[in-house]
Amino acid sequence: MNDSFDGTFSLFQMLWGNIVARPLRSFLTVVAISIQVVLVLLIVGLTTGVISEWAKRQEGVGADILVQPPNSSIFFAFASAVMQESLGDKIAALPGVDEVAPTLSLTEPKNLVIVYGIDYQRFNALSRGFLFRSGRPFASPDEVIADDIIAQTKHLKVGDTVTLLNHTFTVCGIVAHGKGARYFIPLKTAQEIGVAEKRVSMFYVRSKGDIEATRQQILSLGPQNRVLSITEYMSLMSSSNLPQLKPFTRTMVGLGIVISFLVVLLNVHTMVMERTREIGILKALGFTRLGIMRMLLGETVILTCFGCLLGIALTFTIQAVMKQTNPGTPVLITSQWVGAAALLALAGASIGAIYPSLRAASFDPVVALAYE
Which H or E run includes 314? Predict the structure, then answer.
């Protein structure tokens, strides 16, 4: 057992010696692999974080049921105002309905921030109401309520003016985040801006307890409408349930693998060329082809491990910085994707090292010793 340990330790010493003998190339390889890890984790973390945070904001509105037009998108940035506002009165008259809040969703084109046009009293009644950090509800058509996340990001305070949807508003209140949108304006104002008189994008509905029975009652008013419980809606807001995101995620992951493959292929190929004579000496001393391959692949694995550790550290650092500087853009890093990113980096690097390793293992020791 001691002989086995000593042999393993001696092999590691040799591998480590080969790595530190070329510090610049080793460092650049580690950095390149870390970039691949950062790329995968940040892209997946951003998409997962934004989707997860949006789902939580919908849950925080306080409704049980969401009523949308037929074939509507689950992303409210693409919502259209085609539902008659009067439908809200019909929904409110149903026996299972406790409260209804007609809502018009608009998107600020400059930064894609969603703005809700709301009937303040009815929207506020869906839950325990807005929690004001400062200020008050809007009292005029040109006032806006901002949540604390966007207020922190844009350095807003009560009394400031802000341009939304090519319209100037005065910030009248700042509330705790988690009520759907980042900005809230009067429903009538939103309808004028969106040229959607007496029309809305959706209705938030709070039932009296029996959500499924209430949902069926709402469907009886318009079977063509999309009526989802908030629980159903949240289950849809997952990156694994959004087919539009899968090609994007796979492309980014594939790009990361290609980066590590090309970097390691170039690095190991150059290293083999530089060490042709050294490899000839090792083969003359009795190293087998498998031993040469194991040596080169071992160096690659060590460099990849360092690259993964650096990439994971950089990703969490970037996540912390973004949380402080731009809290409206959440990055959700899961342990599952940390492991997946490391395995992908290892796979790409190993594949990139195979060809140069096979080439080195096939060297004729006599030719290799004569190489200059």
Answer: helix 289-325
Instruction: Name the pTM for this structure.
Output: 0.74
The token pair that represents 167 in the structure block: 């319209």
3-state secondary structure 132-172: EEEECCCCCCCEEEEEHHHHHHHCCCCCCEEEECCEEEEEE
CB 322 within 8 A of CB 329: yes
Q: Which helix (H) or strand (E) holds 102?
A: strand 97-108
Strands 226-229 vs 65-68: parallel, antiparallel or unpaired? antiparallel
Lowest mean pLDDT among 25-34, 134-143, 148-157, 315-324: 25-34
The CA–CA distances, whole Å, from 167 to 29, 42, 102, 200 equal 51, 34, 22, 19
Token reading at 297: 């692949």
For 213-267, the pLDDT digits (tens) are 999 999 998 888 889 888 888 877 765 556 566 777 777 777 777 777 777 777 7
Tens-digit pLDDT profile for residues 258-289: 777 777 777 777 776 666 666 677 767 777 77
* The pair of three-digit structure tokens given for residue 348, joined into one six-digit string: 């790409």
Q: How far is CA 145 from the centre of its chain?
A: 27
**Whether 128 contacts 62, CB under 8 Å:** yes
- Separation CA 317–CA 343 (nearest Å): 21
CA dihedral 147, 153, 154, 158 (to 10 degrees): 40
User: Which 3 state secondary structure label does DSSP give 21?
Assistant: coil
